[in-house]
Amino acid sequence: MHKKINTVALKALFEFSTPEISDALDACGINGYLNNIKPIGNVKKLIGPAYTVQYRPISHPPHQFMQASNYIDEVPQGAVIVIDNNANPSCSVWGEILTHYAHNKKIAGTVVHGLVRDVHLLEKHNYPLFAAGITAKTGKNRVRITSQRSSLSIEDVTIHFNDIVIGDSNGVLIIPKDQVEKILAMTQHIAINEKKIIEAINSGKTLKEARETHHYDRPWEGES
Fold first, then answer.
1. Residue 96: domain span
2. Could you tell me if 156 and 63 lie in one domain?
3. Which terminal residue of the chain, N or C, has fewer Cβ atoms less than 10 Å from its own Cβ?
4. Coil vs helix vs strand at 44
5. Residue 93 contacts residue 112 (beta carbons within 8 Å)
6. Are residues 167 and 58 in the same domain?
7. Residues 70, 23: one domain?
């Protein structure tokens, strides 16, 4: 049985930036930053459990029209759709109808390892979308879904179904679902520590003195 997602911890994490959480992941030895995936349009922060989708190219022209995205009927409210299209430069796997439907279903947002389109409509739906880039070309009859709710490997980051996704203007992070409380605690330590360092600098200490006093390299240890 999967561990139930700690919604209180998610709300607490949502108050921090991805750089703060990324430092916590580094301190815990977890690779969680998705390189080359950036916010599309005006940035809207997102957090939620991952609903994973894998696409692959269609090797031969299909004999009939290929639907590429009906999986969204199964995505629960509050989830973040994470799509791996293998950074495919030939087509989009997200567009207007999906944005409209995801907004109506109260899906938390979408992260695409690949291209998206119809981005001029994101503001209309106030929908968070992160991707590797933009195109006008559809994925219909070009790619197909090969799995849902399975593990993905994107930019050397392993993403399991229901791992936690958080994104903001600095990019997207993945937090293993069984590490949420640990990462939250470490993030809180780091945020408090960095505030103390800034206060020390403002009081006249050098950066070196402030960092040494507050264990910049080991923020969980407290002051000297």
1. 35-175
2. yes
3. N
4. coil
5. yes
6. yes
7. no
Most distant pair of Cα atoms in the chain: their distance: 73
The three-state DSSP-derived secondary structure of 129-162 is: EEEEEECCCCCCCCEEEEEECCCEEECCEEECCC
pTM assigned to the model: 0.89
Summarize pLDDT for 76-122 with one digit per residue, the tens: 999 999 999 999 999 999 999 999 999 999 999 999 999 999 998 88
pLDDT at 11 over 90: yes
**Within a domain: residue 47?**
yes
Helices (H) and strands (E) in the chain, counts: 6, 10
Q: Are 12 and 137 spatial neighbours (Cβ–Cβ below 8 Å)? A: no
- Per-residue pLDDT for 141 more than 80? yes
> Do 138 and 79 share a structural domain?
yes
The rounded mean pLDDT for the chain is: 90
220 and 150 share a domain? Answer: no
% of the chain residues with pLDDT over 90: 69
